[in-house]
């Protein structure tokens, strides 16, 4: 009986992540001629999804939600950002698993965020306050942080 009780927290967490609020997907990229796949979650209701790989090997997937976007990017150059970040006014937090977390608000009071973990970038931009926690949870999941409740 005790063994079954150990699975309850996982079951509740799984329902939170993959219930009607999120959809599971896979981000695939190539590093050192090896194919890698990373599980991600996205909010349902995106109007389009686009995956691109450039000639250098940078790969990204972008989910559009009207003006808001959610993205995951693999970059060859770890100094590259997926969106412009003014580091003179945006001080990053340290990611618990290594890397940096940047977050801010743009002029129209919508949120942006980018998490750097090695060659990977997880982020969003132009997200209204009403969806901020959901987009934070999606980027947390992909980067290895626990989801927000």
Average pLDDT, all residues = 85
Largest beta sheet: strand ordering: 3-4-5-9-8-7-6
C-alpha geometry:
globular
Derived structural class: alpha+beta
Poorly predicted parts? 1-19
Q: What is the H-and-E element order?
A: HHEEEEEEEEEH
Radius of gyration: 16 Å
Biggest sheet: strands, sense, closure? 7 strands, antiparallel
In short:
Helices cover 19% and strands 41% of the residues. By secondary structure, it is α+β, with helices and mostly antiparallel strands. The strands form two sheets. The protein has a seven-stranded antiparallel beta sheet, with helices on one face. A two-stranded antiparallel sheet has the order 1-2.
Please characterize this protein's 3D structure.
This protein is α+β, with helices and mostly antiparallel strands and 149 residues long. It is 19% helix and 41% strand. It contains 3 helices and 9 strands, in the order H-H-E-E-E-E-E-E-E-E-E-H. The radius of gyration is 16 Å and the shape is globular.
């Amino acid at each position: 009986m005790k063994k079954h009780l150990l699975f309850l927290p996982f079951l509740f967490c799984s329902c939170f992540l993959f219930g009607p609020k999120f959809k599971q997907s896979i981000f695939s990229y190539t590093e050192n001629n090896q194919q890698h796949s990373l599980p991600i979650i996205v909010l349902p209701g995106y109007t389009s999804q686009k995956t691109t790989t450039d000639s250098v090997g940078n790969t990204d997937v972008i989910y559009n939600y009207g003006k808001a976007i959610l993205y995951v990017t693999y970059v060859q150059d770890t100094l590259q950002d997926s969106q412009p970040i003014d580091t003179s006014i945006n001080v990053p937090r340290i990611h618990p698993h290594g890397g940096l977390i940047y977050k801010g608000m743009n002029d129209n009071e919508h949120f942006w965020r980018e998490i750097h973990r090695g060659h990977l970038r997880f982020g969003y931009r132009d997200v209204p306050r009403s969806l901020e926690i959901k987009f934070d949870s999606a980027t947390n999941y992909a980067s290895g942080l626990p989801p927000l409740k």
